[in-house]
Amino acid sequence: MNTNRMVKAAGFIMVASVLSKILGLGREMSIAAAFGATRTADAYYVALAIPAVLFAIVGAAITTIFIPIFTEYRKKDEESFTILANSTLNAILLVVGILAILGMVFTPLLVKLIAPGFSGADFELTVSLTRILLPAIILMGINHWSIGFLHSKQHFFAPALIGIPYNIIIITIVFLSAAAYGVYGLAIGTLIAISSQFLIQMPALKREGFEYRRILDWQHPGLKKATTLIVPVILGTGATQLSGVVDRILASNLTEGSIAALNYASRVNGLPHGLFTIAIITVMYPTLSDYAAEGDLNRFMYTLRKGMKSIAFIVLPTMVGLIILREEIVRLLFERGNFTPESTAMTAFALGFYALGLLAMGWKDLLAKAFFSLKDTKTPMYVGIGVVSLNIVLSIILVRYLAHGGLALATAIALTVGALTLLYLLRHKLGSIGGREVLSGLVKMIILSSLMAILLLLLKQYIDVWVGFSAVVFGNWVYGGALGQAYQLTVYIILAGAFYFSGARLMGLEEAFMMRDIFIKGYQRLKRR
Description:
Blueprint: H1 3-35, H2 39-74, H3 78-105, H4 107-114, H5 120-133, H6 136-152, H7 157-161, H8 163-199, H9 202-207, H10 221-251, H11 258-294, H12 297-324, H13 326-334, H14 341-355, H15 358-373, H16 378-402, H17 404-430, H18 435-461, H19 463-474, H20 481-506, H21 510-528
Helix pairs in contact: 1-8, 1-11, 1-21, 2-3, 2-5, 2-6, 2-10, 2-11, 3-6, 4-5, 6-8, 10-16, 11-12, 11-14, 11-15, 12-14, 12-15, 12-18, 13-14, 13-20, 14-17, 15-17, 16-17, 18-20
């Protein structure tokens, strides 16, 4: 895929992601308003985490391994590709079906393992919710296979939209059934929402020529290669999930609402990652796979550098904004209904620590994809296991001093170590990757982000003067309330963003111009749809 097509594809994914993430925030806001940061919310998020943890053992491997293999066989023989596609789908259904059955049988044990601090009614509620949500494992398997298939065909439109119906359904269910059916209605609605993610991809699968067959050819060379490569990915992913399990174990013994607060903070922190970083990685991964298959390391390195700089350009100022404005962001998004000022303080506390690892999260994901493109799944596995081990040790230590904030800080530190380790190992594997070019751009971005941080701190100090002036012009609604909070936060974002992008253009950072093109072309393509 050439640079122009990558910009267009990334632009569309970002614009579609903006819609999805806005709705995602609406989903979290509706859940927070209905259930707050309480044990009921804790029970729901633990119940939702159990199928996610079970599936994640194979889920990441599906899209990670199958994209380069699908890409390889798509270019060879159409019939062989069709057999491979159906064989992988049926193999996935077999595996996730077994996981779902085992999960149903051992639900109480799983809940006790992940949330040992739960007892009595809290424990029983979590077991019931988990059994409602466990069939989601099967739906997740189908969804991930479909995403891998479509991405291998360079089709990014339908997969980018799957979050939209998902979020709309959950928001609707919360408003319609929370009062009557409580958290059980939310669990059933979540299951329906997950099923919609595959339904929205079905027309695209048909257009790309997929035809389902009851085939499971274990001897197909592509499937055999996938099973060989998938083991390290499963081990690495399983290790990553272990870190999340340990966090929930530790948080279940903390103050009520700690698990929910961590979840809300993680959702907010993941917003820029989902909006920008995932879009960049999604588009670049098939391209990296193509260049790796062709042995064109120059273009491979060029694409990788472009990805690293693009991620840093967006993420660094976002990190600054999340850290400085964390309380304002959480208050605006969640503080209503059963979500109290105490809930805001708990969530903002964790968010500040999570944000420290935002750039490392993006780079780690991109660098791992670079290794996967080179058919090296072992290196990310070993690094992943090391990162998780460090995360667990730090979590056990820091939770004593910073409570749930220590769990967030441990995650940020471990992600940073993991990203730097992968970067070092990739350079050792391939030689020079143009690190000076990346570092030069990174230094400029850090300087700009630091100056932007000073600007935000000054704005916060003198916001009362600005609000007073605005009240004269626009009216007293700018004082307090959701509208006033939104207005103040918008002022922060617009002024800080204008400062950062203007400075980037003055410094000659090409990413400023590329991001402008990405948003323009992405919007134009979405409008044509």
